[in-house]
């Protein structure tokens, strides 16, 4: 019942966060990355302030109030900045032209891929639920820090890479894109691998410092630290996958991303089922890391194929 009430209370967040996403994407498309990133800090900052001020009085509802209020402030601020740039901020009903139809098609394809990727989390939790009491909680705690790292790094890469690649495509500078893909993939893979190694090595002290309080004891710390270490292995694959996905977005191959997302869903389901029975709940985290590595490799291969086709067409 509490969960149902929280879902209802959080419903406005869906609309507000979606609107803020459109406005900040507009700012990013115009190269205003710092402004967009600054506005995006409103939700966590406001949530932290609200929770610190009123959690003792209203409990978990302060977390909901902080999230909704933060999203509202982000939306208003981003909308004001877009309006200041001379663009319309209110929705309007109009017959979409050719460009509009193309946008809706691309949205549908990418939304399908996003649903499949999000479904992996549901599959992971459903599999963990079959492993006994506390398994879902252990999996959730183990994923928290890697998810925060991936969210921050993934957002930064996604925000900056798509406009850059799109600019190269518009200028038909395909030979430059060939070199850019190699350079970006190597650097991001090395940086992600270094970050993954550091996080894996620091898992136990991190979990102990952050979560070992109250009913979260030393045994929980050991179990969650193992899960976190395996989740950390996904970092290089996830980040390289972001690079490759934005590359294919810019080249107009959104359907390829959808196909890879569908394959990822199947791989994760099979990997969860096999590894859960082999090494227990940590196997679910390992499955996630493995399928991200495989998926990123496939995406990079597809990028190389797509850009070579473009470059060959450009060669007289």
Describe the structure.
The structure is a single chain. This protein has 316 residues and is mainly α. It is 86% helix and 0% strand. It is built from twelve helices and no strands. α7 (174-201) runs antiparallel to α12 and α9 (218-232) runs parallel beside α12. The radius of gyration is 21 Å and the shape is globular. The chain starts with a helix and ends with a helix. The model has no long low-confidence stretch (mean pLDDT 88).
Helices and strands in order:
Elements: H1 2-29, H2 33-39, H3 42-58, H4 61-84, H5 98-129, H6 135-170, H7 174-201, H8 203-211, H9 218-232, H10 235-251, H11 254-279, H12 282-314
Stretches where pLDDT is under 50 for at least 5 consecutive residues are: none
Please give the share of residues in helix.
Answer: over 70%
Give the integer mean of the pLDDT values.
88
Largest sheet: none
Helix and strand content put the structural class at mainly alpha
Query: H/E order of the elements?
Result: HHHHHHHHHHHH
Terminal Cα separation, in Å? Answer: 67 Å
Radius of gyration: 21 Å
How many individual β-strands? 0
Please count the helical segments.
12
Strand content: under 5%
| Global morphology | globular
């Amino acid at each position: 019942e509490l969960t149902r009430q929280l879902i209802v209370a959080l419903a406005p967040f869906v609309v507000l966060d979606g609107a803020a996403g459109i406005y900040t994407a507009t700012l990013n498309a115009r190269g205003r990355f710092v402004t967009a990133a600054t506005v995006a800090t409103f939700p966590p900052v406001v949530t932290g302030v609200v929770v610190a001020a009123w959690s003792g009085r209203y409990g978990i509802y302060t977390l909901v109030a902080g999230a909704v209020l933060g999203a509202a402030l982000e939306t208003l601020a981003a909308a004001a900045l877009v309006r200041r740039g001379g663009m319309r901020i209110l929705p309007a009903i109009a017959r979409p032209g050719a460009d509009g139809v193309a946008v809706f098609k691309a949205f549908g394809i990418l939304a399908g891929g996003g649903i499949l990727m999000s479904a992996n989390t549901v599959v992971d939790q459903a599999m963990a639920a079959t492993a006994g009491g506390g398994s879902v909680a252990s999996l959730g705690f183990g994923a928290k820090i890697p998810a925060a790292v991936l969210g921050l790094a993934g957002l930064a890469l996604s925000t900056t890479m798509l406009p850059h690649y799109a600019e190269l495509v518009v200028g038909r500078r395909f030979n430059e894109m060939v070199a850019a893909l190699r350079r970006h993939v190597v650097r991001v893979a090395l940086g992600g691998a270094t970050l993954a190694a550091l996080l894996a090595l620091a898992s136990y002290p991190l979990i102990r410092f952050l979560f070992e309080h109250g009913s979260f004891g030393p045994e929980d710390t050991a179990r969650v630290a193992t899960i976190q270490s395996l989740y950390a292995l996904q970092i290089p694959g996830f980040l390289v996958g972001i690079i490759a996905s934005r590359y294919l977005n810019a080249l107009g191959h959104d359907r390829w991303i959808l196909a890879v997302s569908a394959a990822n869903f199947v791989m994760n389901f099979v990997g969860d089922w096999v590894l859960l029975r082999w090494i227990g709940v940590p196997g679910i985290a390992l499955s996630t890391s493995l399928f991200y590595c495989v998926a990123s490799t496939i995406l990079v291969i597809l990028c190389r194929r797509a850009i070579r086709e473009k470059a060959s067409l450009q060669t007289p």
